[in-house]
Amino acid sequence: MDIHPDRTATRSFAPLLIGMAMTIVDIPMVAIAMPGIVVDLGLGTRALALLAGAYSLVVAMMMLPAGRAGDRFGRRRVFLTGGALFLIGALLSALAPGAVWLAGARMLQGIGAAALAPQALAMIPRLFAPAAQPGAFARLAMTGSFASVCGPLLAGALLVGAPDWLGWRAIFLAEAALALTVMLLAGRRLAPHNAAGSAASRPAEVASFAAIILCLVAPLSLGPAFGWPVPVFLMLAAALPCAALFVRLTARAGPAALIPPALLRAPRFRWSLVFLLLAVSAPPGFFVVLSLALQSELGLSPLQTGLVTAGFPVGVVTGSWAAARLPLQPLARVALGTLLLCASFLLIHAILSGLTPTRLWPLRAGMLAAGAAMGLTVTSVMQLGMSGLPKALSGAGAGTMQTMQQVSMAASIALSFAIYGQALETRPGLEAAAAMMWLQIGTTGAAAALAKALLRGTIFNRRKAET
């Protein structure tokens, strides 16, 4: 029987949640540490842009294959393998003597994170009865949000308390300790489940998919860093034949494909991917750039920066909690959440240029409002996409959704750095960060307009059917 009793399900779900949170907490922690890494390793603008996107790029490339690997080899086995890779990558990052070593270690961490992250989302339909699944989706979003809360604060505390000779390396040592704890907990509580051998995907299909992500996302970091040389455009163009090959291999593989055709025939799932692209993944680039600007422009310490930006993830926890209790269908909640998120980004945009080290409360309030809107949005989008999928498609669905989120996050970070760096040539740091925010305002505004149009069409069709 697939559905466990509530207590057993909760115990099994806990290590999955913590492992997923570990992959999320990494991004804000490293964002807070980035100025120290730049100074210690002597990084220039090019190296900084590449290093900032290395982790997210690899996660985006490997997330979907890892989700399908959970279907084939068992989620417990894939989860523990991912934890081991994340642990090794964190230790190597802590020992990095230079930028190349650190980038390689971060990529290894990214492979581990890709194996960890999709297992929690994919296990919700297996662990929980349909009536309990909305609460599980909300718990998933709230756990990720809590990780974001802890990320800036923990990074700030570690950087303030660590000896000068250790500095930013303390963050990666803390991540290694957390990864070891997660693996021990998963080994005790996470029971194996029967793997579906038919879910196997051929190496050519996995390679073609990874090549698509690489060709689409990597140029967003390489182009601005190196002045958009010809090879960058050739890489972008190479995405087309890679996509054609992937489509052909997918058609041949059928239900065993990385993205089964039946998955994309579900309208709600397709729209959830669009909302992930436009809205849910908008904040990461904003968060990374803002962390840099607050430290470099206002002279805030890492801990002060963490305290200022902590309002966003605190708001996400609140919004995620409220999402499961609003008496609205998921699409209506998506429309409300994206509209509020766009409005919050407009508010923060207006606030940034007037910030001073002694007047930070407007930004704290804006971050809290944006976080609440984000929590409402992400929980609703996840429920919109995953609810109603057959259990046989849960792994592919989870991997596809989180892959789209990671692709968008990597693109958001790369584009935000590009816009911020360009604006810095003619504007002060906070004004450059405000200019960068038009990217987030535009994507979330488009998501709100789309959700409203879809909701209006749904209501119209329902009324038409009734008459």
UniProtKB/TrEMBL annotation:
Tell me where on the tree of life, at the top rank, the source sits. Bacteria
Localization of this protein: Membrane
Using the record's annotation, list all stretches that form the Major facilitator superfamily (MFS) profile domain: 12-464
| Record has Transmembrane as a keyword | yes
GO annotation, cellular component aspect:
membrane
This protein's name: Major Facilitator Superfamily protein
Q: Name one GO molecular function term.
A: transmembrane transporter activity
Q: Which species is this record about?
A: Paracoccus tibetensis
Q: How is the protein disposed in the membrane? A: Multi-pass membrane protein
Q: Which residues cross the membrane?
A: 12-35, 47-66, 78-101, 107-128, 140-160, 166-186, 206-226, 232-251, 271-294, 306-324, 331-352, 364-386, 407-423, 435-455
Q: What is the lineage of its organism?
A: Bacteria, Pseudomonadati, Pseudomonadota, Alphaproteobacteria, Rhodobacterales
